[in-house]
Amino acid sequence: MVGNGKRQILREELSMEGLTSKNLQKFFENLLVTGLIKVMKRPYVPVSAFLVGQSLWLISTPMAQSRDIIKTNVVYETGELFELGIQLSYLLLLLAFLGIGTFFVIRQVLVRRELDLSAKELQEQVRSGDADATELFELGAVMLRRKIYPAAIKYLVQAIEKWDGDDQDLAQVYNALGVSYIREGKLAKGITQFETAVKLQPGYVTAWNNLGDAYEKRKDFKAALNAFEEVLLFDPNNKVAIPRRDTLKEQVKMYRDVPVKTKER
Fold it and tell me: Any residues with CB less than 8 A from the CB of 191 and at least 6 apart, and which?
């Protein structure tokens, strides 16, 4: 009756706590203690204890291995998720670049089409003889944006010859003509147009920037520095003139410190 009672208690422990490695160890420890109590009654106790220990080792070893396998699987799955996240990030970044590139391509196509339509309409007016100075200026500006510089120069010169409006507006025509000459590689003529533009409109910041850039291309660093300083008088926060002014200051100072070699007599 006592043995049956102990076995009933052990069955209740297993059913309440679940079949875990700790419970199994506790279970076999109880069996081992029970067997030791009966050491005087049974002659084969050492063999039973050995069998109990062997059984406990056989059960606990696979459980430990299973825990190691679970840990390894968790680490592996975490690494896969991290790698998947990186791949998704690269994919999204690529899609963003493709979207931006597509936007700019479509925008360029639309701008080009609009310029072509404007040029066609304005050229028809010029051929009919009905184009005034403003329309000639617009056609010259369209040709400049289309990078057809000889045609731009032609129509801008015609616009200046027919101009009967305000001198400050005429300064824009001279500035566009100066850009056309510069793009054609005619630096001296371009500088002349920019100089005329700033004379007609002293606060014309764009023309001053263009003039400073043209002087710098001609290696006239002091004149270029003066042009960018003029820009900053009218626009102190001009993002084009500030870095150019600072760079030219260093260049002017460097050339000022270089001794001039005189010809030997």
Answer: 178, 211, 214, 215, 218
Which is more confidently placed, 194 or 27? 194
pTM more than 0.85: no
Q: How far apart are CA 122 and CA 128, in angstroms?
A: 10
Domains and CATH numbers, the chain: 2-84 (no CATH), 131-201 (1.25.40.10), 202-265 (1.25.40.10)
Whole-angstrom distance between the N-terminal and C-terminal Cα of the chain? 136
- For residue 105, the model assigns a pLDDT of 57
For residue 5, the tally of other CB atoms under 10 A from its CB is: 9
Tokens of 108: 């360029």
185 CB-near residues (< 8 Å, 6+ apart): none
Pick the residue with more confidence: 213 or 23? 213
